[in-house]
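The passage that follows is intended for readers who have already worked through the single-chain material. We present the inputs for a multi-component assembly, then the predicted structure in tokenized form, and finally a short commentary. You are encouraged to pause after the input and sketch how you expect the pieces to fit together before reading on.
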Amino acid sequence: MIFRMNDVRILVVEDEPSLAEVVCLYLKRAGFQVQVAADGKQAMAILEKQIPDFVILDLMLPEIDGLSLTRWLRDRSNVPIIMVTARREEIDRIAGLEMGADDYVVKPFSPQELVSRVRAVLRRTGREQTGAESERDLSLGDIHISPVSRTVTVRESQIELTAKEFDLLYLLARHPRQVFTREQLLERVWGGAEYIDPGTVTVHVRRLREKIERDPSSPVRLLTVWGVGYKFEP
Ligand code: CA
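Having made your guess, compare it with the prediction:
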């Protein structure tokens, strides 16, 4: 699996407290970070501050309904959405998918099934594409990365990176200590390995080391894991 569950933040929008509670429990048990909103208005207030990595949205909500919320959210973000509906809302359910939900579950559903659906949508959409994920600032020791301005400061001074160098550094830094193979990096930074020389990754890692490491010949941040790939040490 290419994403790590413990840094996926899910907003559950559900007005039935007992259902919200059980969904929350299962998601947390699966390793996700979970926040709950009890109605559409509350959800909007949360979403205005920060878009999470995933939204589970009940269709029938007080204040602002699920469809309006989906439409509102889609104007701002491509965050994955799973819509929760009751059977009688069949027609709305289809409208929900057209409106931009990624999947739906019908009440009553098993919480375990919902967790599986979340994982499936995450796999399908790839976490890299979610709005919130690509906009989170990172501070790791003496390195600060700002994805909005695509700038990197190392020991207080801003460094110049090419687009791919930035993407590579940001991907590795966002998953500290997680080892990525060259193939995974080609796939996720260059969008596919077929036409690109695998040596490209090696070259980019070397250039990044020259820019961020105190001593590029004995790196302490961008580490080679022999026979496997690379990782970022925070
Ligand atoms: Ca409801």
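Commentary: Residues 15-16, 58, 60-61 surround calcium ion (CB under 6 Å). Confidence is low (pLDDT under 50) at residues 128-134. How closely did your sketch match?
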